[in-house]
User: What shape does this take?
Amino acid sequence: MYTTTNEDGILNNYAAEPKIYYAEYPAIWQQRKYVLQSLFATLIVTTLVLVGFSVS
Assistant: This one.
């Protein structure tokens, strides 16, 4: 932590900043996995909406 003191003697504490890093672009197999996950999620949400409409 970084600490400074102003002219009134009050301490100001600052958190240490984390090291910045950049994300890497996902590999082909990861992209395919994301596509499958999105398809399953879409299927589940669509099913829930249709069940909700049919019940009401």
Q: What stands out?
A: Strands lie at 2-5, 11-14. Residues 41 and 47 are 10 Å apart (CA to CA). The chain has a mean pLDDT of 91.
